[in-house]
Amino acid sequence: MRVQRDGVQLHGIEAGDGLPVVLLHGFGQSSESEWVRTGLMDAVAEHRRAVAFDARGHGRSDRPTAAAAYGDRAMAWDVVAIADELALGAYDVAGYSMGAATAVEVAFVDRRVRRLLLGGLGDDTTPTWTYREQATLLGAGDPRAWFHPEHHDAAAAWLAGAILPQLAGLDLSVIGPATVVNGVDDKPASFADRFRGGRAVVVPGDHGAALHTPEFRAALSAWCLEGA
């Protein structure tokens, strides 16, 4: 599946039937690496219609090299465009890390969003000087950069565009219900208290490992069943 918005081609995949769940991956990942290979997309598709796509600048989607292409909630509006193209109607959104932050923004701009599952999310999931430093290093092709995508220019533009939402300044109590699933060694589970109908689930692992645990899969499956 391919959907175009604002001149950017977005690559997506689908599986299953039922009420839709849009799956949003984290920074430097893709639908394949974070949802398919982990078996999490299959877990969702057992109960619901699962729709996953590669965010702009990632995976098999286009990789614009202008920082402006990643501002103004571009990734959130990409989700809206996909929901429109697929005629999803009301839908739920599950995201991890960057994808969870994007899911919050989608809920602010699209009233069709019913429920959220947010993994690896906290107030510190925001642009900081370290992201801008990495953008500078990537743009210069500096080997000290901690992230080396296939196309450095696109990653540098993404980082310079600072598209991660500034969650600390948002009134999250107006959106929800939201289930926040964080690793015990990751962000504080109390972040769930900021959402309407917020609920915290703590699973083993840190930011990199939590998504891959059986406990995360169980939490995702239970959330899907609750909303079916």
What strand line-up does the widest sheet have? 1-2-4-3-5-6-7-8
Q: Please state roughly what percent of the residues sit in beta strands, choosing from under 5%, 5-15%, 15-25%, 25-35%, 35-45% or over 45%.
A: 15-25%
CATH-defined superfamily of the largest domain? Alpha/Beta hydrolase fold, catalytic domain
CATH topology of the largest domain: Rossmann fold
The average pLDDT score comes to 86
Label the overall shape. globular
Task: Tally the helices.
Answer: 7
CATH class of the largest domain: Alpha Beta
Helicity, as a percent range: 25-40%
Using only C-alpha atoms, the radius of gyration works out to 16 Å
The topology string of helices and strands comes to EEEHHEHEHEHHEEH
Broad structural category: alpha/beta
Compute the number of structural domains: 2
Q: How does CATH name the architecture of the largest domain?
A: 3-Layer(aba) Sandwich
Main sheet record: 8 strands, mixed
Low-confidence stretches: 125-129
Number of strands: 8
- Terminal-residue CA separation: 24 Å
